[in-house]
Amino acid sequence: MGLSRLAALHGVATSFSPSAGVTEPVPETTVAAVLGALGVDATTPEAVRDALAAAESAARTRLLPETLVVWSGEPLPPALTGLPPGTELAVRLEESDERAEPARMRVPAGEPEPPGPAPAGTPPADPGSAPRWWAEPPLGVHRLTAHAPDREPQDCTLVVAPARAPQPPARTHGFLVQLYSLLSARSWGMGDLGDLADLASWSGRRLGAGFVQVNPLHAAVPGDPTDPSPYRPSSRRFPDPVHLRVESVPEYGHVPDPAALDTLRRKGAELREAVLDKGALIDRDAVWALKRQALDLILAVPLTPGRHAEYCDFLAAQGRALEDHALWCALAEAHGPDWHGWPEALRDPRSDTTARARAELLDRVDHHCRLAWLTDTQLADAQRAAREAGMAVGVVHDLAVGVHPGGADTWAQQDAFAHGMSVGAPPDAFNARGQDWGLPPWRPDALAASGYAPYRGLLRGALAHAGALRIDHVMGLFRLWWVPEGRPPTEGTYVAHDAEAMLAVLVLEAHRAGTVVVGEDLGTVEPGVREALARRGVLGTSVLWFERDWAGDGRPLAPERWRRDCLATATTHDLPSTAARLTGDHVTLRHRLGLLTRPLDEELREDGAETAEWLALLTRLGMLPEGGVLAEGGADEEAAVRAVHRFLLRTPARMTGIWLPDTVGDRRPQNLPGTWDEYPNWRLPIAGAEGVPVTLEQLAASPRLHRLMDVLRDPREAGEARVP
Questions:
Q1: Which residue, 434, 432, 511, 442, is CA-closest to 476?
Q2: Rounded to an integer, what distance in angstroms lies between the CA atom of residue 218 and that of residue 211?
Q3: Cα separation of 587 and 594, whole Å?
Q4: Low-confidence ranges of the chain (pLDDT < 70)
Q5: Which residues pair with 517 in a beta bridge?
Q6: Nearest Cα to 200, choosing from 379, 469, 382?
Q7: Strand stretches in 62-185, DSSP E
Q8: Contact predicate 641/670, CB 8 Å
Q9: 3-state class of 432 per DSSP?
Q10: What H or E segment, with its residue span, contains residue 395?
Q11: 368-408 pLDDT, tens digit each
C-alpha cells in the first residue's frame, strides 16, 4: 500500500489496461525502478516509508506547485483560489528588468469576496470568473511568489496561456512527404530544403495546396552508418545540415577553388543518378560526406558585414543551447557519437575539463554553429516560399517523440532526462510483447521544477519556421510508457506528465509563433485525451482505414460523422500507401519478409474484406465510378485512389493531407514497423506504380498526379461539409 501511494504521488501507475475491461498489475520491481529514475528511493520498505513521509509532508506544506497554469479568461485553478486569506502575491513578468517592481495582489482576509468585478448597472458576474483580487498578467511565463501569513515565501513558475492554439485560416489540403525521398534534378542523392521550397512554391501556385508536411528534420546522431530514422535524433532542438541545398548558401559562389566544388557536385549527381536510374537506396552518409566537404570550403569564405551581423543575431537568440549542441558535435568528432563512452570528465557539460575543451575546440564549435545557422536560414526560406505561393499554412514540421540516449540533447540536459529508462508502448491486443523505442523520457518532476524550460526551448525552435507543427504521439503530453533498462516492454508502466502544463506551454508557444498544432493521436488513446486536445485547439489526425463506427456496428464511418478538428488523410509514413492497401500489396510484402503470424490466404481474405467495405461505401456515395469495382471485389486502383480522396474532401476535416507518393501510385511503404535490416526503411525515393523512382520535376508533370488533383480543385467534389 505504501509503494502504491508513493507511486501515485509521483505520477507512476501501478496497473494498466491492455484492453477494455482488463486490468494488469505493474511489477513492484518496475515501480521501484521508475521511482528510482525520478530520484526516489523505493528499494526497501524502510526507504518507501521515508520517501512517502517526505512526499506527503512536501505536499502539505507547499502553497503552490512548481509550475502553475492559468488559462487566459478562464476560472483560476484551485491552487490559487484555495490560497489562505491574507496571502500576498507578487508576479515578476517575463522579460522584465530585475529592478522593476512586480505586480502585486492580495487574497482578502475574512469572508471571500464575490467573484469578478461587478460595476453598477451590469449583470452579476459569472460564478466561474476570476475573483476581484486577481489581476491577470499578460500571456507569458512569469515568476510568482506567494507569501501566506506565518509561512515562508514560496516561488513558482506561472504560465499564462491563451485558451486555444491558432487554427488554420481556412479548410485546406496539402501534401505529406518524407523530404529525403523527394529527389529533384538538383538534389545530391536525397531531397533537400531547396526541394522543399520548390515543392511548396509549385504546389501552392499551381495546385492550390495550403501546406506541405515533412518528416522531422532534427539533427541525427552521426554514425557509420547513421541511423536513417528521423524519429530517433541526436537533438530535437536543432536541424540537421544534411538537408542543406549547398548551392543556395550565399558564400558558395565565392569559394576560391570552384573546381573542387564542381567535382563534389558531380559526385552528388552520381549519387542522385544511382538512386533514380540504378535502383540504389538513398545513402544519407554518402550524401553528407560530400556536403561536409563542400561546406568546409564554403565556411572558409569570410562573411560580409551584413551576413556576419545576421549570424551574430542568430547566436544571441539561440544562446547556450546552441553552444552546447555545437560543442557536443565537436566532441563527437573526437570521441564518438555516444557521450556515455567519452572520457568521464567530458560527460559533464559543465565540468572544468569540458570548459577547457570548449575553448580548445572553439573553431569547430563555431563551425557547427554556422551549419545550424545556414540550415535555419533555408528553413525560413522554405516557409517564405510557401507563404508567397499563397499557402494558407505553409510548411508543417514534425516533432519526434524523443531523442537518442547518447545524443546531444541528453548530454546537454542530463538533469531533464530519466536515464536508465526508455519510452515505448504497453502490450495490447495487437502486440502482446509491447514496444521499446529506445528513447529516454523527460522527467516530469525536472520539467516542472525548471518551469518547463527545456520543453519551451524545444518548441520555440520547432515552431520558428513552421506554419504548423505535427506532434508525433501527442498522447505523450499526458503520459508515456516507461521501460526500465534491461526489462522487456511488458514490464513497463505509465508515468504521467502534468498535462495542463504541457498543453499550456504548447499553446502559448504556438500562439507566439502563430502556428497551427496537429497531434498524431492514432492508436490507443486514454479516455479524455482527445477531448482535452480539442478544447485547446490541437487538431487530431484521422486516417481513413481506421475511421469506423467502433461504438456501433464497426462499419466504415460516413464522411459527415468525422470530426472537424483534424488532419484527415488516407495514410501515413508508417502505413501502406493507398495503392498498396487497395491491392493487398502490403500483405504480400509482410508475407515475403516472414512477418505474418497467420497463413497468407487468411490475411488476404480479412484484409480484402475490410477494403471491400470501404469500396462499397465509396460506390454507394457515388465517389467510385460505375465499373470501378470489379466482379471479384477489387477495383481499378487509380480510380479508387481518387475516390478515397473524394471521400476525404466530403468530411468536415479542417485539413486534408495527400500522401505525395499516392499521387503517382507508389506501392512501397517508407517505413515498415517491426523491421530493421529486413526492409530499407527511410531510404526509398518516391516511385511510380511500377517502382521506378520519380523526381520532383516528373511529379509536377505527372498526368496521374493532375488527375488526382483535379478532384481537389473541383469545388463540387467537396460537398456541403467543406463549406467553412
A1: 442
A2: 20
A3: 11
A4: 110-129, 626-635, 714-724
A5: 469
A6: 382
A7: 67-71, 88-92, 103-106, 140-147, 154-161, 172-177
A8: no
A9: coil
A10: strand 394-399
A11: 999 999 999 999 999 999 999 999 999 999 999 999 999 99
Q: Are 76 and 134 in contact (CB under 8 A)?
A: yes
Instruction: Give dist(CA 720, CA 29) in Å, integer.
Output: 56
DSSP reduced 3-state for 254? helix
Q: DSSP string covering 662-717, please?
A: GGGT--S-S--TT-STTS-TT----B-TTS-B--HHHHHT-HHHHHHHHHHH-GGG
The alpha carbons of the chain give a radius of gyration, in whole angstroms, of 27
Grid coordinates given for 310: 545576421
Task: Please tell me the number of Cα atoms within 13 Å of 173 on its side-chain side.
Answer: 26
Task: Tell me the three cell numbers of residue 304.
Answer: 560580409
Rounded Cα gap, residues 520 and 523, in angstroms: 9
Are residues 45 and 53 in contact, defined by beta-carbon separation less than 8 angstroms? no
Closest CA to 275 of 575, 700, 691: 691
Beta-carbon contacts of residue 16 (< 8 Å; ≥ 6 apart) = 23, 24, 26, 426, 493, 494
> Using one digit for the tens of pLDDT, what is the confidence trace for 182-220?
999 999 999 999 999 999 999 999 999 999 999 999 999
Paired residues of 115 in beta bridges: 131
Provide the residue type at 62 as one letter. Answer: R
Helix axes 305-335, 362-388, angle to 10 degrees: 120
The grid coordinates listed for 558 are 460516413
Please give the span between the terminal C-alpha atoms of the chain, in angstroms, as a whole number. Answer: 54
Beta strands (DSSP E) in 414-533 are 421-425, 435-439, 468-471, 479-484, 493-496, 516-519
Cite the DSSP H helix spans in 336-437: 352-360, 362-388, 408-412
State how far the Cα of 368 lies from the Cα of 408, in Å rounded to an integer: 13
SS3 600: helix
Omega before 18 cis (within 30°)? no
How far is the CA of 66 from the CAs of 5, 311, 567, 677, in angstroms?
Answer: 21, 36, 35, 45
Helices 600-620, 637-650: inter-axial angle, 10-degree rounding? 60
**CA separation for the pair 697, 694 (Å, rounded):** 8
270 membership: H or E segment, kind and range: helix 258-277
Q: Is the dihedral of CA 717, 718, 721, 724 positive or negative?
A: negative
Q: Which helix or strand (DSSP H or E) is residue 602 part of?
A: helix 600-620
CB 285 within 8 A of CB 256: no
CB-based contact 193:378 (threshold 8 Å): yes
What kind and span of H or E run contains 332? helix 305-335
The cell numbers describing 213, all together, are 508536411
Grouping H, G, I as helix, E, B as strand and the rest as coil, residue 93 is coil
Q: Are strands 172-177 and 235-239 parallel, antiparallel or unpaired?
A: unpaired
Do residues 366 and 325 touch, judged by C-beta distance below 8 A? no
pLDDT score of 304: 98
* Residue 156, SS3 per DSSP: strand
Closest of 166, 203, 170, 210 to residue 657, by C-alpha: 210
> Is 405:223 a contact under the CB 8 Å cutoff?
no
Placement of cell 552521426 in the chain: 222
Residue 645 to residues 173, 547, 608, 714, Cα–Cα distance (Å): 10, 14, 19, 12
On whether the pTM is more than 0.70, the answer is yes
State the cell numbers at 65: 506547485
- Cα separation, 660 vs 642, whole angstroms: 13
Please return the burial class of 134, using the count of CB atoms within 10 Å of its CB with bins 0-12, 13-18 and 19+. Answer: middle
* Residue 465 phi, psi (nearest 5): -125, 40
> Beta strand 493-496 with 516-519: parallel, antiparallel or unpaired?
unpaired
Spacing of C-alpha 532 from chain mean position: 18
Asked if residues 516 and 539 have their Cβ atoms less than 8 Å apart, the reply is yes
The angle subtended at Cα 515 by Cα 315 and Cα 169, nearest 5°, is: 145
Any idea what DSSP says for residue 22?
A: E
